[in-house]
Amino acid sequence: MLEARYIYLMLLPALAWFGVFVYKPIYGLLMAFEKFNIRKGILGSEWIGLANFERLFITAGAMRSIVTTLEISLTRLAVEFFFPILLAIFINEMRGAKLKRVYQTIFTFPHFLSWVVVGIVARTLFRQEGLVNAMIGAFGIAPVNFMASKTFFRPLLYISSIWKGAGWSAIIYMAAIMGINTELYEAAEVDGAGRLRRIWHVTLPGIMPTIIVMLILSIGGLMGGSFDQIFNLQNSAVKSVATTIDIYVYDITFGAIPDYGFSTAVGLFKSIINVALLVGANFIIKKVSGSGLFA
Q1: Strand partners, 186
Q2: What does the alpha-carbon distance between residue 251 and residue 61 come to, in Å, rounded to a whole number?
Q3: Cα 65 to chain center, whole Å?
Q4: How far is CA 79 from CA 72, 83, 166, 195, in A?
């Protein structure tokens, strides 16, 4: 143990960060069970038990936010999950290492743009006088204010999320592909398998454990709602189709009359549901495929 003391010393900053920013704030969850008064503090506020959670289920806005979160997240899972896999296979099948690096850089670059920047670009492109309307106007189509349309807002969420995140997520699958034994591809080629058959019978089975883990993690984050993205793309016109749990918590926390106890209860409820989804998805997928988060 003394031989590895310098390695343990290197871990201290990370452990300190987790202690201060991850574990210490757990103490604040007590607010979910209190009628929190900022002047009295956490220990001095009135204890009301599960009253905030009961209020959650009889508050129309909170229930609508839960439904909206599930609608957006389930559609996001169905639409977005497979794009990084396809992109990783697409890049892997390219000829030439330089060309692969170029495309990987192109597709990964959007990840490093903040949603603030993406929101500004989206509003510029999709506003009524924007570039997109100018292009469709050339075909005689009437301009549409996409950012203020309840019909187009959610598709814009999915498209922008794929554009920004698919390249970064594909790195995980590309790493998994690199771990596949090349002799399997050579054997498949000798047996007369074409490129598509090699992908289907070698590449996909080889990265299936990674796909399963990423699927479980995605299901476990269904209640997340992508706060940064929606917060920077939403506006008052699409509020009814954009208010997820995170946006709802933000509104009631920083609204005219903040209710920290209730907002903490809503956030804690969301976290509990996420944990339940994660454990449930891992259990079901492991029963079906024999592989899960913990092998």
Answers
A1: none
A2: 11
A3: 17
A4: 10, 8, 12, 25
Cβ neighbors of 115 (< 8 A, separation 6 or more) are: 164, 228, 229, 231, 232, 233
With a CB cutoff of 8 Å and minimum separation 6, the contacts of 85 are 170, 173, 207, 211
Residue-wise pLDDT for 5-39, tens only, equals: 788 888 899 899 989 988 888 888 899 999 988 88
Q: Which positions ≥6 away from 126 have C-beta within 8 Å?
A: 132, 133, 145, 146, 147, 152, 156
Q: What are the strands, taking DSSP E only, across the chain?
A: 34-35, 46-47
Looking at the predicted structure, is the pLDDT value of residue 150 above 70? yes
Q: Taking the model in full, what pTM does it have?
A: 0.84
What are the tens digits of pLDDT across the range 239-286?
A: 889 999 999 988 888 876 788 889 899 989 988 988 888 888 888 888
Tell me, what amino acid is at 204?
L
Query: What is d(CA 261, CA 53) in angstroms, rounded to the nearest whole number?
Result: 10
